[in-house]
Amino acid sequence: MWLADRWTDYELIDCGRGEKLERWKDKLLVRPDPQAIWNTPRNHRGWKHPDAQYNRSSSGGGAWAENKLQGNKWQVRYGDLTFQVGLMNFKHTGLFPEQAANWDWARKQIASAGRPISVLNLFAYTGGATVACAAEGASVCHVDAAKGMVQWARENAKCSGLEEKPIRWIVDDCAKFVEREIRRGRRYDAIIMDPPSYGRGPSGEIWKLEDNLYPFVELVSGVLSDDPLFVILNSYTTGLSPSVLTYILQTVVGGKFGGHTLSAELGLPVSATGLALPCGATGRWSRK
């Protein structure tokens, strides 16, 4: 497991009974987590007195309750990066803190490349990976179908003092954008993909990760440069093990360029127990 264990403004205090207690700078949140199926004593006061708690509904979905933060955004720092977070629909905050493990790895790859690196970030959400790569000197193309998320990512870049860096902000369907980039002959040295488990395209197309992931990675491999640096592929679908990501990346990308693929769970250390909460899988292909 690759742990995101260098945070100071984020802490996973405790988890269990299908929920997790988190500290986002000085705000305490309780949110659902389907992996936390064990029992805990819940000794921390935050379980009873959070700043906000997301409760699942028996009919599906849910809502924020006991919410002292309605409509507010606040900032959290990770090293030299600054992000805005806030309470979103369906329990989200605008940031997946476990992805910091991938940000660190990508930055090391870019720093050691010894040449200019162009990065394509697909399903790029609020731009955690975009900001990290730009901070290391890469040029980045940030693509997400949700206009609001792209605007949030722009704000994150500005918070980190990176608004003048070479970042292209694209609101588009990721597959259609990649198809156009292939026709235009544009290439990238690194690709980051964070596709959803399930979704609908702008014309009602259904995206199901198990059915669409392999052909999507095949498509995306068509915009890699002749000397690619790395590819990161994330999955939050519980039915896909890290080994599946290894197989996909090594078959598609490794089949073209050689290199090496490693995959593992991402995790967050839990302060109350010293254990780690699994937070999805990630695969990393690198040329060297």
Describe the structure.
With 288 residues, the protein is of the alpha/beta class. It has two domains: 6-71, Sandwich (Immunoglobulin-like); 97-286, 3-Layer(aba) Sandwich (Rossmann fold), CATH 3.40.50. The protein is 26% helix and 33% strand. It has six helices and 17 strands. It has helices at 100-113, 128-135, 147-159, 174-184, 209-220, 242-257, and strands spanning 2-3, 10-16, 19-24, 27-32, 52-56, 62-65, 73-78, 81-86, 118-122, 139-144, 167-171, 190-193, 198-200, 206-208, 230-235, 260-269, 276-286. The strands form four sheets. An eight-stranded mixed sheet has the order 1-16-17-15-12-9-10-11. Strands 2-3-4-5-6 form a five-stranded mixed sheet, with no helix packed on it. A two-stranded antiparallel sheet has the order 7-8. Helix 1 (100-113) packs parallel to helix 2 (128-135). The protein is globular and about 55 Å long. The protein starts with a strand and ends with a strand.
